[in-house]
Amino acid sequence: MNTLIFRTVAPYLSALMLLFSVFVLLRGHNEPGGGFIGGLIAVSAFAIYGIGCGVSAVRRAMKFHPMSIAASGLLLAVVSVLPSLFLNQPAMTSQWLAVPFLGTKIDLSTPLFFDIGVYLVVVGAISSIALSLEERAD
């Protein structure tokens, strides 16, 4: 299935899917989506890019080793639990912080950082598996 059309379209389709995965990640706390589903969409984008352009192109595009991405996501998810523990509240109680940004305030929350951590764990772990399977297929 490695046709000229697929090799041409794969980078654009992958970029669009990565953008959509970030959209699903960010809307996931209040609506369907979140870190897990967004991560799966991102891994699908990397898989399509890998099928079309090769595993080495995906590894260059990722910039970091997939397991390093997973480890940083796990660290972020664990760190997002700590603020509630420091405030003597039950673990994973939401904490909010309003940060001024360009004349407006952005509400940052611990669930957002937890979702980003889950996203990175899913992207790192499953893309590591997918890339090793694609390497063996070649």
Q: Strands across the major sheet, in which order?
A: 1-2
DSSP summary: helix tally? 6
Structural class: mainly alpha
Shape: elongated
Distance between the termini: 13 Å
Mean pLDDT, all residues? 90
Percentage of residues in strands = 5-15%
The string of secondary-structure elements, in order, is HHHHHEEH
What is the number of E strands? Answer: 2
For the CA atoms, what is the radius of gyration?
17 Å
Question: How are the SSEs ordered, and which strands pair?
Answer:
Elements: H1 4-27, H2 35-53, H3 55-62, H4 66-79, H5 82-86, E1 96-101, E2 104-109, H6 110-137
Antiparallel strand pairs: 1-2
Short summary of the structure?
71% of the residues lie in helices and 9% in strands. The protein is mainly alpha-helical and 138 residues long.
Provide an overview of this structure.
- This protein is mainly alpha-helical and 138 residues long.
- The chain has helices at residues 4-27, 35-53, 55-62, 66-79, 82-86, 110-137, and strands at residues 96-101, 104-109.
- It is built from six helices and two strands, in the order H-H-H-H-H-E-E-H.
- A hairpin with a 2-residue loop joins strand 1 (96-101) and strand 2 (104-109).
- The longest helix is centred in the C-terminal third of the chain and has 28 residues, at 110-137.
- The radius of gyration is 17 Å and the shape is elongated.
